Amino acid sequence: MTKTKTKIEKQLKRKTNPVLVETIILAKKNKPWYKVAEVLSTPTKKQPSVNVGELTKENSEIVVIPGKVLSQGSLDKKLKVVALSFSEGAREKILNAKGEAVSILEEIKKNPSGKGIKILG
């Protein structure tokens, strides 16, 4: 079930993190990023947490996690991981695998068309 823009707006009013608010606003304006806006507008407890080890299975160039990336497991291939936040260990493992760890806000600004992204969660 997709959320309406009005529902996202109502949930957005409860958010206090200015970076999160800006990310949701930008994401909902760009169709490929709309699902990210839906997930980020939900309560933090409902946002997905993905372990680095789970990213090994992905075949996409850019993997988007609208939540937090945790450090459990290992990463053996180069990936661009875009997420709301990263644990220190997860960021280190991604960078050691010659990948990139980027915030969702930065990626929406660089790639508003959402070309090559795969959204997990």
The helical percent reads: 25-40%
Taken in chain order, the helices and strands follow as HHHEEEHEHE
CATH topology: Ribosomal Protein L15, Chain: K, domain 2
The computed structural class is alpha/beta
Q: According to CATH, what is the class?
A: Alpha Beta
Rg, Cα atoms, Å: 14 Å
Q: What distance separates the N and C termini?
A: 14 Å
Count of the domains: 1
- Judging from the principal axes of the Cα atoms, what is the shape? globular
Average predicted confidence as pLDDT? 90
Largest sheet: 5 strands, parallel
Number of strands: 5
Strand content: 15-25%
Low-pLDDT sequence parts: none
- CATH architecture, please? Ribosomal Protein L15, Chain: K, domain 2
Number of helices: 5
Helices and strands in order:
Elements: H1 5-12, H2 18-29, H3 34-40, E1 49-51, E2 62-70, E3 80-86, H4 88-96, E4 100-103, H5 104-110, E5 117-119
Parallel strand pairs: 1-2, 2-3, 2-5, 3-4
Helix pairs in contact: 2-3, 2-5
Give an overview in words:
36% of the residues lie in helices and 21% in strands. With 121 residues, the chain is of the alpha/beta class. It has a single domain, classed as Ribosomal Protein L15, Chain: K, domain 2. Strands 1, 2, 3, 4 and 5 form a five-stranded parallel beta sheet that branches. Strand 3, helix 4 (88-96) and strand 4 form a beta-alpha-beta unit. Helix 2 (18-29) packs antiparallel against helix 3 and helix 2 packs parallel to helix 5 (104-110). The radius of gyration is 14 Å and the shape is globular. The chain starts with a helix and ends with a strand.
